[in-house]
Here is the input.
Amino acid sequence: MSYIDWIVLISTLLLIVLYGIYKSRGSRNIDGFLLANQSLPWYHVGLSVMATQASAITFLSAPGQAYTDGMRFVQFYFGLPVAMVVLCITFVPIFHRLKVYTAYEFLENRFDLKTRALTAFLFLLQRGLSTGITIYAPSIILSTILGLDIRATTLFIGFLVIIYTVYGGTKAVSYTHMLQMGIIFMGMFVAGYMVVHLLPEQVTFVDALKLAGKSGRLNVVDWNFDLSNRYNVWSGLIGGFFLALSYFGTDQSQVGRYLSAKSVSESRLGLIMNGLVKIPMQFLILLVGALVFVFYLFHSAPLQFNPNERNKILQSEHAAEYLLLEKNYNELSIEKGRQAEHLVSAMHTGTEQQVEIHRQALNDAQHKADNIRKASKELMMKSDASSDTDDSNYVFLTFVTSYLPKGLIGLLIAIIFLASMGSTASGLNSLASTTVVDIYKRLIYKNGSDHHYLSASRWSTIGWGVFCMIVALFANRLGNLIEAVNILGSLFYGTILGIFLVAFYFKQIKGQVVFFAALIAEALVIMSYIFDLTAFLWLNVIGCALVIMISFMLKPFIKPRPDQG
Amino acid sequence: MSITEEKTPVFKSWSRWYLLVLAALVLSIVGFYLFTLYFS
Here is the structure.
């Protein structure tokens, strides 16, 4: 990276940290630290909700996923707008009316202390691990591109976030989110423009879309109902709805965002903004990945995008075999480029039959290239069974650092850092809120002063920051990171959502019953995942349905304690 | 101000807002479907 890129990167990161500290000065009580004194307008809430969800993983993995697998991942978000509507109708007014700090406080009002503690514990477990992964994602950038120790980069990002989150709490998190999203939107636009700009002169934007489409990379909508298919309209609408409802309705990292709004209306508008903007935004990010695929039709793509894994195999006894595969792959790249040019010419001036002939030739070349990539991955696994052969997280980064001009590289790397910092900050803030409000204040030290709990919140933020950094150091074996986070969420969110839905809609079910139902449901969800019974998105539905069904099954056998309403 | 007293911004009721969100979703899915068909 050039010194211009370093200046852009460091000044952008410093700007965010200083802005967060400046805007949050005066957060000197627990209300200010955890809820920003409930003073934020709707656009703050909306951007903060979006920044919390859009981690660095979004910008690293999503384009890589579109490159390798097409754009079908966007269907994952189809249930989100429906979930926003349900949240606005049910969750938001109840949380505001009860004036809670965390979503789990509501569960003690409705059920009992142990159900609140169980749900808070499941959240802390899931969110602590997920936040660790969100720190790890940008750490691989510096370690891979600049050759720095991944431990040093993990610690650097972690400490940077801890500084302003500990100082300013929710207010700092929210204000930095605003600025981060502004820079991120600008960066997305620039990246998309640059990919098209760097295509050969005769290839227009529409040609690029046609090439991506004919190569199966614009497969946005798949109507086939298949439980084992991760992304189709139905898994997105149903599974995605339950995941989004659970994530935005019961995950404190999101609930904390809209609890800081100054009124119910502002919370609702913020969530509606998310419901309207999220799908187009994700579509555009994936489209950038599909365009990067088209770019690599005309330029030689690396056989393995992760340089560390490439270096590893080149130092093994299988180096000669790998180099032969690489040679064949490069020859095919030239062939692909030639066929892509023929296809573009045919699309401009040829007949439909000529288009079809060149499309078939391009797809054949692509198929052969895919087979070589598969063979190279098998060779890597043969050489070292612990190899991380999934290089989709490196695709976009490789493009950025290899082809973008000086200055823009720094900006796009800064964007990835900012995205990671945004979601990490929300994660740490929510982990601290839940630890202090639901565990420490409720179970350990009940009668402390406001100053004591403010101090506890700050120490808790630091403690969780350290925990997440430790998780980040062990996150390199999780394959595609965006899926790893979503799988982790799906393991716990269904059960948590089930508890909340019983709380909202089934008044006859009491705390003792839902507590045991949740324990059984969670065990069954984990077993479903271990035995690979279904695609992970459906675990949200299964977990939620199991809690409700088991609650009704247990109800006749478990009598509520006299103190339970 | 209590929840029931808060005035709905822009539209007459929140139901209109919810309808807008769901309509945008349906339009997105239909638009993406046509996009997939056109470019494949």
About this structure: Residues 150-197 of chain A form the longest helix (48 residues). DSSP finds 21 helices and no strands in chain A.
